[in-house]
Amino acid sequence: xxxxxxxxxxxxxxxxxxxxxxxxxxxxxxxxxxxxxxxxxxxxxxxxxxxxxxxxxxxxxxxxxxxxxxxxxxxxxxxxxxxxxxxxxxxxxxxxxxxxxxxxxxxxxxxxxxxxxxxxxxxxxxxxxxxxxxxxxxxxxxxxxxxxxxxxxxxxxxxxxxxxxxxxxxxxxxxxxxxxxxxxxxxxxxxxxxxxxxxxxxxxxxxxxxxxxxxxxxxxxxxxxxxxxxxxxxxxxxxxxxxxxxxxxxxxxxxxxxxxxxxxxxxxxxxxxxxxxxxxxxxxxxxxxxxxxxxxxxxxxxxxxx
Amino acid sequence: xxxxxxxxxxxxxxxxxxxxxxxxxxxxxxxxxxxxxxxxxxxxxxxxxxxxxxxxxxxxxxxxxxxxxxxxxxxxxxxxxxxxxxxxxxxxxxxxxxxxxxxxxxxxxxxxxxxxxxxxxxxxxxxxxxxxxxxxxxxxxxxxxxxxxxxxxxxxxxxxxxxxxxxxxxxxxxxxxxxxxxxxxxxxxxxxxxxxxxxxxxxxxxxxxxxxxxxxxxxxxxxxxxxxxxxxxxxxxxxxxxxxxxxxxxxxxxxxxxxxxxxxxxxxxxxxxxxxxxxxxxxxxxxxxxxxxxxxxxxxxxxxxxxxxxxxxxxxx
Lengths: 306, 317
Known about the structure:
The complex is a heterodimer of chains A (306) and B (317). Chain A has 306 residues and is mainly α. Chain A is built from 12 helices and no strands. Chain B has 317 residues and is mainly alpha-helical. Chain B has helices spanning 7-45, 48-51, 67-98, 101-115, 119-146, 162-186, 190-198, 203-214, 216-232, 235-240, 261-268, 277-316, and strands at residues 55-56, 63-64. In chain B, strand 1 and strand 2 (63-64) form a beta hairpin. Chain B is flat, with a radius of gyration of 24 Å. Chain B starts with 6 loop residues before the first helix and ends with a helix. Chains A and B meet through helix 1, helix 3, helix 4, helix 5 and helix 6 of A and helix 1, helix 3, helix 4, helix 5 and helix 6 of B.
């Protein structure tokens, strides 16, 4: 028999135990919430600072003119940098997208073996590589061989940065297209490459575009590989075998100058760059990822029907 | 299918294989090029390129040692990780366990967007805004409190130093670690949580006894991926670390200028003449960074792949 005193003691122990656990739970919740606040504050501060300081520098001349002489009253603008970034994005997509998409096709259609696993693994490793190493590599491979900094070298370096991202997202989105689609194509006697190009790729279109745009956003902000490959310039593009300017590179140069005006211009250039990068990211998320969710559901339903 | 496969199909297959092989070729070429490009400095310095601390590019007195920069990279990344890991895990736990549905998606999206901000913008912000706060609110009070007697707070609080660089680096890698950890925690099956709830566990206990053990190796992978980013990060660190060279770059005080493997490459590259020993030394530094980052990433991917694979198996089956 349990006496009344014993029961009271049990209750006391129980209350003490549960009370402590509940307090600990509350404490941890508070700490976690604090973590979120502490981490989000500087991140939001960056955005606020760039937007408020950068908007002040914006004007039509700032966006289109060449930079003025350093320290002079003629401030000029960042026209060549914007042009250079766009040219670099275009040229590196020219190399990175076809190779990346074909590689992704290999991984999803033929990659179910040892070689596919190896490629997938090293592709993932390459995606996380320090981009400055890629810059040095391109410098040795192209700049030292040709003897000059060039747009081509920069595009090649950036294409290596974008390649693994395109490859991985292509593979993932091709895998979402159900096997039944492919089988329907084979049943009609269509050749495998046409099945892949007409049926599978069009089914995975939104995923493909998402991957390509995200990789473009990534390379738009890359600085380190460009330091070693395009050198920077204050003129509009002269030719593909000469140096040009790019936005991230211009921001870096401006930030190291000791003038107030160059600081303002640096904020302005950062503003343009962030708008470019974030609009691609947000646009992709709204346009494609949402729809991808729907098509994914549709695919799943179709898959379960078969 | 096999019999009827035509020449076009074969071409298609080989083109695809070629594109995939391109990745491997690039990695092999990186190794070869960095090795040959830096051969000169390895020949001259030998092992003392790794252990020495001299850094002199004056003609005739050239001497290169990368030890301070290796140390600088490790210390810088280490401090950044020490700040970033608890905060990222806090965010990941909040997003996967605690956050109300309404807050979850927008917050996760903001975190992911922040991972997309270019590093040069973080650097600019650190240089023009954050530096003054660090200098006035943290460094000067700490310096006044402890003075030059304490080693880690010695030196003039200038704002461009190891402390500022590592805090900004931490801010930069938090989104990466947090979003990967969130994915990994969400991959824990709900039955695990329900079993813990059934035993009367509180939210924290559920996290500790059900979520954490289940996702341990994935979380370690996330940490190492973050470490890989931190080690290779260039622009923001270059703009903030103060850029000391030679023996002065050995990290001793938080308030002293330092130098990392990537920042010395970005800084001195423009001064190095083609074909010279200085350039070979910088390429040699690139090789060290490559090997470091390669090792870190291989370990990370082996750990993360294991978890994500089981996750995918559970979801897509």
